[in-house]
Amino acid sequence: MIKILNSKQFKNILFSLCILGFLFLIFNFCDAAVLYLSPSSGEYNRGDIFIVEARLDTQGEYINAIEANLNFPSDILKIQNLSQGNSILTLWIKEPSFSNNTISFIGGTPAGYQGPDGLMVKIVFQVQEQAKGSVKINFQDDSKVLLNDGKGTEAKLSTKGGSFNILAKRLEVPKDQWQKELEQDKIAPLPFKIEISQNPAIFEGKYFITFSTTDKETGIDYFEVKEGKMDWGKVVSPYVLNNQELTDDIWVKAIDKAGNEWIEILKAPKKPIWEYVLYGGLFLILLSGIIILVRKLL
User: For a designed S-S bond to 250, which of 137, 153, 245, 266 qualifies (C-beta 3.0 to 4.6 A apart)?
Assistant: First the structure.
C-alpha cells in the first residue's frame, strides 16, 4: 500500500535532504587539499616585477607528492625566475619550468607534509610594456596531490587562482620585489655530499658523481664542477667524470640565485702512480738510512 505524503511531510523531507546535501558538500570541501596563490590579487604597473607564491593547504591530510600546472597570459606577463627557495618539496621529479603560457613542476617530500601554507614555488613575473587590464593566473585541472599513504592515492583537490589588475602606465623606477629578495639573501646553500658511483647499465659503465642541496632563501641557481687542474664548468647531477682513473680531487660548487656559493671537495679516490713511486722511493731512502745508521752503531 502506497502512503501519500501531505504537503507538510513532503516539505520536511525535502528540507532534511537539502541539509544532508549541504553537509555532504561542506564535508567534501573541508577534506580537499587546496592549491592556491599568494597573493591572489594585486595592482601593478607596466615594467613592475612581482612575486606570486604557489602554495598548498593540505586540509589536515599528509601528502608526499604534487604535480602542478598553471596557466598565465604570456602576452601580458613574462617569467623572470622560478625559485625553489624554502620549498616544502625536497625531491624534484620535474623542476619548475615554463613553456609558452604554462608553468609546471612535479615534486615530493619523502617524509610527508601537513599544513595550511606550504610553499611550493615562487614565480617571478614581469609586466609587459603593452599590458593593461585584468589578468588571471590559474591552476590547470590536471594538477594532482598524492597522499603520504604508501599507495600513491590521489587526494581530493580544489584550486584557487589569482586575479591581478595591470595599470596602463609605467613608473619612473618600476617596482622590483625579486631584487629586494636577492639583496637580502646573504646565506650560502646548505652543505651536501658528493657521491661517486659506477653502474654497467648507465653511462657505458663510466664513473659518475651525484650531488644535491637546497637553499632556504632564493633557491639553487646552478652547480659547477672542477676536476684536478681543469677549469670550473657548469653541470647537472649526475655528472660523468672526465678522469676515469679517479686520481684527481673533485670540487662541486652550489650557487644560489643571489650568487652565494658553497663548495664541497671529494678527495681523489685513488692516488696517481707517481705518488706511489715517490712515497716508495722516500721509504727506501729512509730505510737505507736507518740500516746505515744501525751498522755504524754496531
Answer: 266
User: Domain 32-184 class?
Assistant: mainly beta
CATH number attached to the domain at 195-267? 2.60.40
**181: number of CA atoms within 13 Å, CB side?**
20
Chain segment 208-227, per-residue pLDDT in tens:
999 999 999 999 999 999 99
pLDDT tens digits for range 127-154: 999 999 999 999 999 999 999 999 989 9
Is 157 within 8 Å of 32 (Cβ atoms)?
A: yes
Interior angle at CA 42, CA 158 and CA 54, nearest 5: 35
Among residues 244, 252, 251, the alpha carbon closest in space to that of 270 is found at 244
Q: Where are the domains of the chain?
A: 32-184, 195-267
32-184 and 195-267 share one fold: yes
| Exposed e or buried b per residue across 65-92, where buried means at least 16 C-beta atoms within 10 angstroms of its C-beta | bbbbbbebbeebbbbebbbbbebbbeee
